Amino acid sequence: MVKRHVPRWSDVSSLVGVKSLFTRHNSVDKAVTIWQLRAIAQSKTPRAVFDYTDGAAGEELSMNRSREVYRDLEFYPRVLRDVAKVDTSVTVLGQRSELPFFFSPTGFTRMMHYEGEPAVAQVAAEFGIPYTLSTLGTTSIEDLAAAAPDTRKWFQLYLWRDKASRFELVDRAAAAGYEAIMLTVDTVVGGMRVRDVRNGLTIPPQLSAKTLADMARYPKWWGNLLTTAPLEFASLKSTGGTVAELMNSVFDPSITMDDVKWLRDNWHGKLIIKGVQNVADAQMLIDAGVDALVLSNHGGRQLDRSVVPLELLPQVRAAVGAEPEVMIDGGALCGADIVAGIAMGATGVLVGRAYLYGIMAGGIAGVRRAATILKTEVEQTMRLMGIKQLDELEPNMVRLRNK
Predict the structure, then answer these.
(1) 99 with 343: CB under 8 angstroms?
(2) How far apart are CA 26 and CA 66, in angstroms?
(3) Which residues of the chain have pLDDT under 70?
(4) How many CB atoms lie within 10 A of CB 85?
(5) Can you give the pTM of this predicted structure?
(6) What pLDDT score was predicted for residue 22?
(7) Could you count the other beta carbons within 10 Å of the beta carbon of residue 232?
(8) 142 to 58, 110, 201, 235: CA distances (angstroms)
(9) Which among 180, 155, 189, 188 is positioned nearest to 169, based on CA atoms?
(10) Most exposed residue of 88, 349, 368, 383, measured as fewest CB within 10 angstroms of its CB?
(11) Domains and CATH numbers, the chain
(12) Which neighbouring-strand residues pair with 377?
């Protein structure tokens, strides 16, 4: 016979988990994947703002294809290796990054959450990785440098029609101690971002009947917007229209290799070119002496049906060799994606949406959670792949199933 008794609290408390009883269902601490952070972000952020981050250009084919390629990856792990300790670091622009992913430039970050770019940069410092401030950022070059003095800071540069303004930004980045300029070259005009048009999103958001009704659903977001510093671009004046309209009116559609050469001659830090989508262009830029490339389709937000960076990477490596630094972005939303990118030849992987979901979900705590998730997944994937260091990865350890 089995003896029974009335259960005591001490018998069940460890099973129930007292902490979980007092944790909100949408707390970022409960998220174990970036997709879960995305769901929390969607619950806390007005639709137009969430869609600005979540969406892409046209039919969103480029964005979805980039994600599908990562899903089609297949690993060939090694076993019987001592992986008790793993080293997740890579060398980028001659310095150590503690992790193989870097925080990419994103525009208008304070629209996602009032803590904005300083929160992202501070988390980058905590995790020992670089952060890139965007020309379309909502924190100035100088304010970001003051808020995150220990962060490796890169500045993403768009070239404006007003040449004096572009020169000024370069000088300010140099004076504030930024390590690198990341010149973005795939934005001669703005992509058609259908969600922004459908939602009537303007920069900054305008109060209308629709947005006033939205306040009832997201009072905390609107309260933060209306009680903190005005939401505006730090490096240029807003047009009051969509991002695409802003790009079309301000950015220079006549940029050529002469502009790259001018920057190479007048910027004395490292020079990165972002937005490369063609093998011939990659070779041309390496021959011109740039320090690094970012193979990028702008997260699918510019030319829909553009090439998937991960698929382009092996072709570029075959053309330029193993020495030039070649980073990729677009589609990476977990640590396994990042490890796969390194295995296929990337120096590092830039992530944007991953940390933006985090900041929308919970401010700096959400960004920290996003970085923790990616770090944990990188370490787990390395161990399961049977490697202690990322340079032990070989091309034959990963392949695209459809190739």
Answers:
(1) no
(2) 28
(3) 10-26, 203-209, 211-212, 215, 237-243, 403
(4) 9
(5) 0.92
(6) 47
(7) 13
(8) 35, 16, 28, 11
(9) 155
(10) 383
(11) 92-378 (3.20.20.70)
(12) none
